[in-house]
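Quick note —
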Amino acid sequence: MKIYPPKLKEVGNKIILISDFETDTYSNSLWYEFDIEYKKHLVTEQSDAFVVGLLLLAFKLKEDIYIEGSISARLKYQLNYYLIPALCIAFKEFNKIQVFSEEESELILSNDNCQSATGISCGVDSLATLMEHEKMKGLLAISHLTYLNAGSHSDFGSVFGRELFDEKYRKIVEFGKEINKSVIKIDTNLSELLQMRFITSHTLRNISCILNLQKLFKSYYYASAFRFDQFEINSRISDLYDLLTLQMVSTESVRFYSSLSDKTREERTRLISKYQIAFDYLDVCVDPKSAKGKINCSKCSKCMRTQITLDVFGSLNFFNNVFDMEVYQRHKNKYISGLIVNKKRSKMDKNVWNLLVQNNYKITFLHFAVAWMIILEEKTNNLKKFVKSLLLKKKKYKTFK
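Predicted structure written out below.
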Protein backbone atom coordinates (compact mmCIF):
# COMPACT_ATOMS: atom_id res chain seq x y z
CA MET A 1 0.00 0.00 0.00
CA LYS A 2 1.32 3.41 -0.97
CA ILE A 3 0.03 6.50 0.86
CA TYR A 4 0.47 9.92 -0.76
CA PRO A 5 0.90 13.23 1.14
CA PRO A 6 -2.32 14.73 2.54
CA LYS A 7 -3.84 17.78 0.87
CA LEU A 8 -6.58 20.25 1.78
CA LYS A 9 -9.81 20.86 -0.10
CA GLU A 10 -12.38 23.54 0.79
CA VAL A 11 -16.05 22.73 0.22
CA GLY A 12 -18.35 25.52 1.39
CA ASN A 13 -17.90 25.98 5.13
CA LYS A 14 -16.02 22.68 5.42
CA ILE A 15 -12.36 21.78 5.03
CA ILE A 16 -11.46 18.26 3.92
CA LEU A 17 -8.06 16.69 4.56
CA ILE A 18 -7.59 13.97 1.97
CA SER A 19 -4.91 11.46 1.03
CA ASP A 20 -4.86 9.18 -1.98
CA PHE A 21 -3.59 5.64 -1.56
CA GLU A 22 -2.84 2.70 -3.82
CA THR A 23 -2.96 -1.00 -3.06
CA ASP A 24 -1.83 -3.89 -5.24
CA THR A 25 -5.36 -4.18 -6.66
CA TYR A 26 -7.07 -0.77 -6.47
CA SER A 27 -6.74 2.95 -5.67
CA ASN A 28 -8.88 5.09 -3.37
CA SER A 29 -8.82 8.08 -1.02
CA LEU A 30 -9.20 8.48 2.72
CA TRP A 31 -10.67 11.79 3.89
CA TYR A 32 -11.49 13.62 7.09
CA GLU A 33 -13.93 16.55 7.17
CA PHE A 34 -13.83 19.48 9.63
CA ASP A 35 -15.47 22.87 10.01
CA ILE A 36 -13.45 25.49 8.11
CA GLU A 37 -12.35 27.25 11.33
CA TYR A 38 -10.00 24.34 12.11
CA LYS A 39 -8.08 24.59 8.83
CA LYS A 40 -5.00 26.15 10.44
CA HIS A 41 -4.78 23.30 12.97
CA LEU A 42 -4.76 20.43 10.45
CA VAL A 43 -1.56 18.46 9.86
CA THR A 44 -0.44 18.35 6.24
CA GLU A 45 3.28 17.97 6.99
CA GLN A 46 2.98 14.30 8.05
CA SER A 47 0.79 11.32 7.17
CA ASP A 48 0.40 10.07 10.76
CA ALA A 49 -3.42 10.08 10.75
CA PHE A 50 -3.65 8.25 7.43
CA VAL A 51 -1.16 5.54 8.39
CA VAL A 52 -3.04 4.79 11.61
CA GLY A 53 -6.40 4.93 9.84
CA LEU A 54 -5.35 2.56 7.05
CA LEU A 55 -3.23 0.21 9.16
CA LEU A 56 -5.94 -2.44 9.58
CA LEU A 57 -6.75 -2.30 5.86
CA ALA A 58 -3.08 -2.95 5.06
CA PHE A 59 -3.23 -5.94 7.40
CA LYS A 60 -6.33 -7.28 5.65
CA LEU A 61 -4.63 -6.90 2.27
CA LYS A 62 -1.34 -8.35 3.58
CA GLU A 63 0.56 -5.33 2.25
CA ASP A 64 3.37 -3.24 3.71
CA ILE A 65 2.78 0.51 3.92
CA TYR A 66 4.98 2.91 1.92
CA ILE A 67 4.60 6.60 2.75
CA GLU A 68 5.46 9.14 0.10
CA GLY A 69 6.45 11.98 2.36
CA SER A 70 6.89 12.14 6.11
CA ILE A 71 5.69 10.39 9.28
CA SER A 72 6.38 10.97 12.96
CA ALA A 73 9.63 9.15 13.78
CA ARG A 74 8.23 8.04 17.13
CA LEU A 75 5.00 6.77 15.60
CA LYS A 76 6.82 4.81 12.90
CA TYR A 77 9.09 3.16 15.48
CA GLN A 78 6.22 2.28 17.80
CA LEU A 79 4.11 0.83 14.99
CA ASN A 80 6.88 -1.35 13.58
CA TYR A 81 8.34 -2.62 16.85
CA TYR A 82 5.33 -2.78 19.17
CA LEU A 83 1.81 -2.24 17.84
CA ILE A 84 2.07 -4.25 14.61
CA PRO A 85 3.50 -7.32 16.43
CA ALA A 86 0.76 -6.95 19.08
CA LEU A 87 -1.98 -6.82 16.44
CA CYS A 88 -0.55 -9.99 14.90
CA ILE A 89 -1.09 -11.64 18.28
CA ALA A 90 -4.65 -10.28 18.50
CA PHE A 91 -5.66 -11.20 14.95
CA LYS A 92 -4.33 -14.67 14.16
CA GLU A 93 -5.12 -14.18 10.46
CA PHE A 94 -2.77 -11.18 10.21
CA ASN A 95 0.74 -11.50 8.83
CA LYS A 96 3.40 -9.09 10.03
CA ILE A 97 3.67 -5.99 7.86
CA GLN A 98 6.01 -3.01 8.02
CA VAL A 99 5.74 0.76 7.65
CA PHE A 100 8.28 2.46 5.34
CA SER A 101 8.59 6.19 4.65
CA GLU A 102 10.61 8.62 2.55
CA GLU A 103 11.16 10.80 5.61
CA GLU A 104 10.84 10.67 9.40
CA SER A 105 10.10 13.76 11.43
CA GLU A 106 10.77 14.64 15.07
CA LEU A 107 8.96 17.93 14.60
CA ILE A 108 6.75 19.04 17.51
CA LEU A 109 3.62 20.27 15.78
CA SER A 110 1.76 21.48 18.87
CA ASN A 111 2.54 24.93 20.27
CA ASP A 112 2.76 26.26 23.82
CA ASN A 113 -0.88 27.38 23.81
CA CYS A 114 -2.24 23.92 23.04
CA GLN A 115 -4.37 22.17 25.62
CA SER A 116 -6.22 18.88 25.88
CA ALA A 117 -9.38 17.30 24.53
CA THR A 118 -11.62 14.28 24.93
CA GLY A 119 -14.33 12.61 22.90
CA ILE A 120 -17.96 13.24 23.81
CA SER A 121 -20.95 10.97 23.26
CA CYS A 122 -22.70 11.86 26.54
CA GLY A 123 -22.42 8.22 27.58
CA VAL A 124 -21.25 7.19 31.05
CA ASP A 125 -17.56 6.97 30.09
CA SER A 126 -17.29 10.32 28.32
CA LEU A 127 -19.22 12.18 31.04
CA ALA A 128 -17.16 10.51 33.78
CA THR A 129 -13.95 11.48 31.95
CA LEU A 130 -15.10 15.10 31.86
CA MET A 131 -16.03 15.06 35.52
CA GLU A 132 -12.74 13.46 36.56
CA HIS A 133 -10.75 16.17 34.74
CA GLU A 134 -12.84 19.16 35.85
CA LYS A 135 -10.15 20.49 38.18
CA MET A 136 -7.22 20.05 35.79
CA LYS A 137 -5.34 23.25 34.99
CA GLY A 138 -2.86 24.40 32.37
CA LEU A 139 -1.98 22.10 29.50
CA LEU A 140 -3.91 19.16 30.98
CA ALA A 141 -7.19 21.09 31.18
CA ILE A 142 -9.82 20.01 28.65
CA SER A 143 -10.39 22.86 26.20
CA HIS A 144 -12.26 21.02 23.43
CA LEU A 145 -14.63 18.11 22.90
CA THR A 146 -14.56 15.97 19.77
CA TYR A 147 -17.48 14.23 18.12
CA LEU A 148 -16.54 11.63 15.52
CA ASN A 149 -18.25 9.68 12.76
CA ALA A 150 -15.64 6.93 12.49
CA GLY A 151 -17.92 3.91 12.90
CA SER A 152 -19.86 4.31 16.14
CA HIS A 153 -23.01 5.22 14.19
CA SER A 154 -22.58 2.50 11.54
CA ASP A 155 -19.83 -0.14 11.45
CA PHE A 156 -19.51 -0.25 7.69
CA GLY A 157 -20.69 3.23 6.77
CA SER A 158 -24.19 4.12 5.56
CA VAL A 159 -26.52 7.01 4.81
CA PHE A 160 -28.42 6.16 8.00
CA GLY A 161 -25.21 6.28 10.05
CA ARG A 162 -24.32 9.73 8.75
CA GLU A 163 -27.88 10.98 9.36
CA LEU A 164 -27.76 9.66 12.94
CA PHE A 165 -24.36 11.33 13.41
CA ASP A 166 -25.74 14.70 12.26
CA GLU A 167 -28.86 14.31 14.39
CA LYS A 168 -26.95 13.52 17.59
CA TYR A 169 -24.43 16.29 16.86
CA ARG A 170 -27.09 18.93 17.45
CA LYS A 171 -27.57 17.66 21.01
CA ILE A 172 -23.81 17.47 21.54
CA VAL A 173 -23.43 21.13 20.51
CA GLU A 174 -26.07 22.10 23.10
CA PHE A 175 -24.12 20.16 25.71
CA GLY A 176 -20.87 21.90 24.73
CA LYS A 177 -22.49 25.32 25.14
CA GLU A 178 -23.76 24.31 28.60
CA ILE A 179 -20.24 23.59 29.83
CA ASN A 180 -18.58 26.32 27.73
CA LYS A 181 -16.44 24.04 25.55
CA SER A 182 -16.05 23.97 21.77
CA VAL A 183 -17.15 20.80 19.98
CA ILE A 184 -15.09 19.67 16.98
CA LYS A 185 -17.13 17.63 14.52
CA ILE A 186 -15.10 15.14 12.45
CA ASP A 187 -16.55 13.04 9.63
CA THR A 188 -14.58 10.45 7.66
CA ASN A 189 -15.02 7.63 5.14
CA LEU A 190 -12.93 5.19 7.19
CA SER A 191 -15.90 2.88 7.81
CA GLU A 192 -16.58 2.52 4.10
CA LEU A 193 -12.92 1.69 3.45
CA LEU A 194 -12.23 -0.71 6.33
CA GLN A 195 -15.45 -2.77 6.27
CA MET A 196 -14.73 -4.07 9.78
CA ARG A 197 -16.81 -4.28 12.93
CA PHE A 198 -16.39 -1.13 14.99
CA ILE A 199 -15.90 -2.96 18.30
CA THR A 200 -12.76 -4.67 16.95
CA SER A 201 -11.23 -1.54 15.43
CA HIS A 202 -12.59 1.63 17.04
CA THR A 203 -9.46 2.74 18.90
CA LEU A 204 -7.36 3.09 15.74
CA ARG A 205 -10.27 4.60 13.81
CA ASN A 206 -10.96 7.29 16.41
CA ILE A 207 -7.32 8.11 17.13
CA SER A 208 -6.61 8.53 13.42
CA CYS A 209 -9.17 11.36 13.41
CA ILE A 210 -7.43 13.08 16.34
CA LEU A 211 -3.94 12.79 14.82
CA ASN A 212 -5.07 15.34 12.23
CA LEU A 213 -5.24 17.92 15.04
CA GLN A 214 -1.76 17.60 16.56
CA LYS A 215 -1.27 21.36 16.15
CA LEU A 216 -4.19 21.94 18.53
CA PHE A 217 -3.80 19.25 21.23
CA LYS A 218 -0.91 18.14 23.43
CA SER A 219 -3.01 15.57 25.32
CA TYR A 220 -6.10 13.56 24.49
CA TYR A 221 -8.15 11.55 27.00
CA TYR A 222 -9.64 8.46 25.40
CA ALA A 223 -12.32 6.96 27.65
CA SER A 224 -11.52 3.33 28.39
CA ALA A 225 -14.22 0.68 28.58
CA PHE A 226 -12.37 -1.60 30.99
CA ARG A 227 -10.24 -1.42 34.11
CA PHE A 228 -6.47 -2.04 34.23
CA ASP A 229 -6.87 -5.62 35.46
CA GLN A 230 -8.94 -6.63 32.42
CA PHE A 231 -6.14 -5.95 29.92
CA GLU A 232 -6.12 -8.58 27.19
CA ILE A 233 -4.96 -8.70 23.57
CA ASN A 234 -7.63 -10.31 21.41
CA SER A 235 -9.42 -9.80 18.09
CA ARG A 236 -12.91 -9.32 19.53
CA ILE A 237 -12.72 -6.08 21.53
CA SER A 238 -10.05 -3.43 20.91
CA ASP A 239 -10.88 -1.66 24.22
CA LEU A 240 -9.24 -4.48 26.15
CA TYR A 241 -5.77 -3.41 25.02
CA ASP A 242 -6.28 0.36 24.75
CA LEU A 243 -3.47 0.88 27.27
CA LEU A 244 -1.03 -0.51 24.69
CA THR A 245 -2.60 0.99 21.56
CA LEU A 246 -2.84 4.53 22.91
CA GLN A 247 0.79 4.54 24.01
CA MET A 248 1.93 3.24 20.62
CA VAL A 249 0.05 5.84 18.55
CA SER A 250 1.28 8.81 20.61
CA THR A 251 3.74 11.08 18.79
CA GLU A 252 6.27 13.81 19.56
CA SER A 253 3.36 16.27 19.59
CA VAL A 254 0.42 14.55 21.28
CA ARG A 255 0.00 11.93 23.99
CA PHE A 256 -3.06 9.72 24.37
CA TYR A 257 -4.31 8.61 27.79
CA SER A 258 -6.72 5.80 28.63
CA SER A 259 -8.96 7.66 31.06
CA LEU A 260 -10.91 5.92 33.86
CA SER A 261 -8.80 2.76 33.59
CA ASP A 262 -8.77 2.57 37.39
CA LYS A 263 -12.58 2.43 37.66
CA THR A 264 -15.26 -0.22 37.13
CA ARG A 265 -18.44 0.51 35.18
CA GLU A 266 -20.32 0.87 38.47
CA GLU A 267 -17.75 3.32 39.88
CA ARG A 268 -18.02 5.45 36.74
CA THR A 269 -21.80 5.49 37.01
CA ARG A 270 -21.53 6.55 40.65
CA LEU A 271 -19.20 9.36 39.54
CA ILE A 272 -21.84 10.86 37.22
CA SER A 273 -24.81 10.07 39.49
CA LYS A 274 -24.51 13.54 41.08
CA TYR A 275 -23.19 15.32 37.95
CA GLN A 276 -25.95 17.84 37.29
CA ILE A 277 -25.26 18.34 33.58
CA ALA A 278 -25.69 14.58 33.08
CA PHE A 279 -29.28 14.75 34.33
CA ASP A 280 -30.35 16.28 31.00
CA TYR A 281 -27.81 14.78 28.58
CA LEU A 282 -26.91 11.19 29.60
CA ASP A 283 -27.19 9.09 26.43
CA VAL A 284 -26.49 5.36 26.74
CA CYS A 285 -29.17 3.86 24.48
CA VAL A 286 -28.43 1.31 21.75
CA ASP A 287 -31.99 1.51 20.39
CA PRO A 288 -32.80 5.25 20.15
CA LYS A 289 -35.51 4.57 17.55
CA SER A 290 -37.60 3.06 20.36
CA ALA A 291 -37.22 6.09 22.61
CA LYS A 292 -40.51 7.96 22.94
CA GLY A 293 -39.98 11.55 23.95
CA LYS A 294 -36.72 10.79 25.80
CA ILE A 295 -33.07 10.47 24.79
CA ASN A 296 -33.02 6.80 25.89
CA CYS A 297 -35.48 3.98 25.17
CA SER A 298 -35.18 2.93 28.85
CA LYS A 299 -35.49 -0.80 28.09
CA CYS A 300 -32.45 -1.91 26.04
CA SER A 301 -29.63 -3.72 27.87
CA LYS A 302 -27.48 -0.59 28.30
CA CYS A 303 -30.41 1.52 29.45
CA MET A 304 -31.45 -1.11 31.99
CA ARG A 305 -27.90 -1.60 33.29
CA THR A 306 -27.41 2.14 33.74
CA GLN A 307 -30.83 2.73 35.31
CA ILE A 308 -30.60 -0.06 37.85
CA THR A 309 -27.09 1.07 38.83
CA LEU A 310 -28.35 4.63 39.35
CA ASP A 311 -31.31 3.16 41.24
CA VAL A 312 -28.95 1.38 43.64
CA PHE A 313 -27.11 4.67 44.25
CA GLY A 314 -30.41 6.46 44.91
CA SER A 315 -29.94 8.84 41.97
CA LEU A 316 -32.26 7.49 39.27
CA ASN A 317 -34.98 10.09 39.84
CA PHE A 318 -32.49 12.84 38.96
CA PHE A 319 -32.40 11.41 35.42
CA ASN A 320 -36.14 11.48 34.68
CA ASN A 321 -35.54 13.89 31.78
CA VAL A 322 -33.54 11.26 29.87
CA PHE A 323 -35.16 8.00 31.04
CA ASP A 324 -38.82 6.95 31.07
CA MET A 325 -39.37 5.74 34.63
CA GLU A 326 -42.57 3.86 33.78
CA VAL A 327 -40.81 1.86 31.06
CA TYR A 328 -37.97 1.08 33.49
CA GLN A 329 -40.36 -0.17 36.17
CA ARG A 330 -42.14 -2.43 33.64
CA HIS A 331 -38.88 -4.09 32.59
CA LYS A 332 -36.91 -4.03 35.85
CA ASN A 333 -38.01 -7.37 37.29
CA LYS A 334 -37.34 -9.28 34.07
CA TYR A 335 -33.92 -7.62 33.85
CA ILE A 336 -33.04 -8.75 37.39
CA SER A 337 -34.10 -12.30 36.49
CA GLY A 338 -31.86 -12.05 33.44
CA LEU A 339 -28.93 -11.10 35.67
CA ILE A 340 -29.51 -14.28 37.70
CA VAL A 341 -29.40 -16.31 34.48
CA ASN A 342 -26.37 -14.57 32.98
CA LYS A 343 -24.16 -13.79 36.00
CA LYS A 344 -22.03 -16.86 35.30
CA ARG A 345 -21.83 -16.13 31.57
CA SER A 346 -21.18 -12.39 31.52
CA LYS A 347 -18.70 -10.50 33.69
CA MET A 348 -20.70 -7.31 33.17
CA ASP A 349 -23.92 -8.95 34.38
CA LYS A 350 -22.03 -10.52 37.27
CA ASN A 351 -20.77 -7.08 38.35
CA VAL A 352 -24.28 -5.59 38.26
CA TRP A 353 -25.66 -8.58 40.19
CA ASN A 354 -22.94 -8.24 42.83
CA LEU A 355 -23.76 -4.53 43.15
CA LEU A 356 -27.41 -5.37 43.87
CA VAL A 357 -26.50 -8.01 46.44
CA GLN A 358 -23.87 -5.87 48.19
CA ASN A 359 -26.32 -2.99 48.52
CA ASN A 360 -29.23 -5.18 49.72
CA TYR A 361 -31.34 -4.31 46.70
CA LYS A 362 -34.78 -5.94 46.89
CA ILE A 363 -34.54 -9.35 45.20
CA THR A 364 -37.51 -11.68 45.63
CA PHE A 365 -38.40 -15.32 45.05
CA LEU A 366 -40.29 -14.19 41.95
CA HIS A 367 -37.02 -13.05 40.33
CA PHE A 368 -35.52 -16.52 40.81
CA ALA A 369 -38.73 -18.21 39.59
CA VAL A 370 -38.68 -16.19 36.36
CA ALA A 371 -34.96 -16.95 35.99
CA TRP A 372 -35.68 -20.68 36.16
CA MET A 373 -38.40 -20.24 33.53
CA ILE A 374 -35.91 -18.48 31.25
CA ILE A 375 -33.37 -21.29 31.75
CA LEU A 376 -36.06 -23.92 31.10
CA GLU A 377 -37.12 -22.15 27.91
CA GLU A 378 -33.49 -21.99 26.74
CA LYS A 379 -32.99 -25.72 27.39
CA THR A 380 -36.25 -26.56 25.61
CA ASN A 381 -35.24 -24.53 22.56
CA ASN A 382 -31.78 -26.11 22.53
CA LEU A 383 -33.34 -29.57 22.72
CA LYS A 384 -35.66 -28.77 19.81
CA LYS A 385 -32.70 -27.60 17.73
CA PHE A 386 -30.77 -30.77 18.60
CA VAL A 387 -33.68 -33.05 17.65
CA LYS A 388 -34.22 -31.11 14.43
CA SER A 389 -30.55 -31.47 13.47
CA LEU A 390 -30.71 -35.24 14.15
CA LEU A 391 -33.79 -35.60 11.94
CA LEU A 392 -32.08 -33.66 9.15
CA LYS A 393 -29.00 -35.89 9.39
CA LYS A 394 -31.22 -38.98 9.32
CA LYS A 395 -33.07 -37.68 6.27
CA LYS A 396 -29.79 -36.96 4.44
CA TYR A 397 -28.50 -40.43 5.34
CA LYS A 398 -31.62 -42.12 3.89
CA THR A 399 -31.36 -40.01 0.73
CA PHE A 400 -27.71 -40.99 0.36
CA LYS A 401 -28.54 -44.73 0.77
